[in-house]
Amino acid sequence: MVKGDFMSRILNLVERQAVMSNVRARLAAEVPSRPGQYVAEDGTIFGPCLLVSRECGSGGGLAARRAGDLMGWNVFDARIVDEIARNAHVRQRAVQNADERAHSSWERTWRGLVPDDLADERYIRYLREVICELGRHGNVVIVGRGAQYILPPQCAVRVRLVAPLETRAKRVAERRNISLDEARSQIWTVDKQRAEFVWRIFRKEVNSPLNQDMMINTGAVSIEGAAKMMVAALGEKFGVVPPKLLAPVMEDVDTLSPASARQDH
Questions:
Q1: 38-39 and 140-143 strand pairing
Q2: DSSP label at 142?
Q3: Which of 22, 202, 233, 251 could serve as a FRET partner for 216 with CA atoms 20 to 30 Å apart?
Q4: What's the Cα-to-Cα distance from 48 to each of 74, 130, 158, 238, 258, rounded to whole Å?
Q5: Model confidence over 53-103: pLDDT tens digits?
Q6: Residue 163 falls within a domain, yes or no?
């Protein structure tokens, strides 16, 4: 993808997320809260969110995008979040609506989160601000970048997608047109880098099930099945229903005649 096209895509996503958040804020004036919202001790409201981490080759990114499609939510993958955090102009647009209370929350958590000797402290600081602001907007899917260690677990469904090594190697080999040995080597490198990032920044074990709400083995479940399981988990934890499931119900209600409506009561 051309750099300019990628940046345009990111800016479009940021603008869409801001618009969606503003609409929900106006609705919140009439409706006190929406399913999945969590109010932190300082009053900052987060969620609902779907936070996806994945082993290389597990299909986590594909499943996350499919879940986002089913929910009607924007999906921010690791590459997009990285670009926002590194690009000052985009970052400013992403967090410009954050209030002082949210910024104070970021500052307090940040001081206890980042090691003093971290070389790229500025990037990680911006990364956290971006993820917190996306979490504050809610109705969003975030893939990777340690989002499940940054946002409150009460505001999100945290999912990790895994699969047997050979299954992942075959997928990577086919997608990148390389040998199985090369695929295994790439998988080992990517998984190692991700695990080191999580441990270095958050002091968490990336494969610990205690840091997740659910783990899905895509060696046994299809990508579509994994996406539907994540959507079902959002419904189970928060009562959030995909709009595509709500639409037929609303159509049925709209087509009820006054007579039939009275009979139903």
A1: unpaired
A2: E
A3: 202
A4: 12, 16, 11, 8, 36
A5: 999 999 999 999 999 999 999 998 877 666 665 665 444 444 444 343 444
A6: yes
Which amino acid belongs to residue 203? R
pLDDT in tens, 199-231: 988 899 999 999 999 999 999 999 999 999 999
Q: How many residues does the chain have?
A: 265
In sequence order, which residues have a C-beta less than 8 Å from that of residue 96 and are 6 or more positions away? none
Give the pLDDT of residue 120.
Answer: 61
What is the count of structural domains for the chain? 1
- At 146-178, the pLDDT tens digits run 899 999 999 999 999 999 999 999 999 999 999
Instruction: Please choose, from the candidates 244, 214, 68, 230, the residue with its C-alpha nearest in 3D space to the C-alpha of residue 142.
Output: 68
What six digits make up the tokens of 213?
């709400």
Measured CA to CA, the distance from residue 99 to residue 90 in angstroms comes to: 18
State the helix-helix crossing angle for 121-137 and 100-113, rounded to 10 degrees.
140
Q: Is residue 197, in this structure, part of any structural domain at all?
A: yes
The token pair at 96 is 């410009």
Q: Which of 35, 45, 33, 134 is nearest to 81 (CA)?
A: 134
Q: Is residue 161 a part of any domain in this protein?
A: yes
Q: What is the domain range of residue 104?
A: 3-239
Question: What is the 3 state secondary structure string of 68-88?
Answer: HHHHCCEEECHHHHHHHHHCH
CA distance 74 to 139: 7
- CATH label of the domain that carries residue 132: 3.40.50.300
165: which 2 tokens? 């090594």
In the chain, the amino acid numbered 243 is P
Residue 127 scores a pLDDT above 60: yes
